[in-house]
Amino acid sequence: xxxxxxxxxxxxxxxxxxxxxxxxxxxxxxxxxxxxxxxxxxxxxxxxxxxxxxxxxxxxxxxxxxxxxxxxxxxxxxxxxxxxxxxxxxxxxxxxxxxxxxxxxxxxxxxxxxxxxxxxxxxxxxxxxxxxxxxxxxxxxxxxxxxxxxxxxxxxxxxxxxxxxxxxxxxxxxxxxxxxxxxxxxxxxxxxxxxxxxxxxxxxxxxxxxxxxxxxxxxxxxxxxxxxxxxxxxxxxxxxxxxxxxxxxx
Length: 250
What we know:
With 250 residues, this protein is an alpha/beta fold. It has helices at 16-27, 39-50, 66-79, 103-131, 142-146, 152-172, 190-198, 203-208, 218-229; strands spanning 7-11, 31-36, 56-60, 85-88, 134-139, 177-182. It has one domain (7-187, 219-233): Rossmann fold, CATH 3.40.50. The chain is built from 9 helices and 6 strands, in the order βαβαβαβαβααβααα. Helix 1 (16-27) crosses helix 9, helix 3 (66-79) runs parallel beside helix 4 and helix 4 packs parallel to helix 6 (152-172). The radius of gyration is 17 Å and the shape is globular. It starts with 6 loop residues before the first strand and ends in a 21-residue tail after the last helix. The model has no long low-confidence stretch (mean pLDDT 93).
């Protein structure tokens, strides 16, 4: 079990990419704290993971709220142990013409998608620094790599996630902690289904036009994240591992 003995936090872990990642971690032996605004979903996910023989906790957490994040870390310490892996996955999207965007909408996207990187990472870094080992994996977006019409705020926030990753990776490189990011392409998740319909996007039609002719699955993302969380990825940091079925090449 590659992740046996590790304690992971997965934000936005009640569904989609986060849930698939939490499930992959548990199958590989990691204990998992599931954080999500959906408390019922977080607790349900944690209960499911516990059947795999690992320690779990499900918590309602607003990842942009330092008080809530610190409380969730304390609860994790009590029930699971110190954090060794952090997956900053929670986020929101926004489909809106640029000239219709309000400052309030812009700020909300930046707070949840980018400020959360600061709040959550600062909360768990002391555990990793004490252990001289840690993995931070941030979920960014292929929209930040290619640009995306009517998604300026979202793409800008995820571009910030990529820059955050590269910069923090350099700062922590000698500490035994790696920092990487995984930009998903067109991954079929509940959020994509809900927001895509609102933005006039057909999941099936868009997937058919992609190089692979299909949408990605949350499990595709989970596999990449699990690799970056493993000892095998110990000499990889500041890296952008694209999971997009050929949408963007670098």
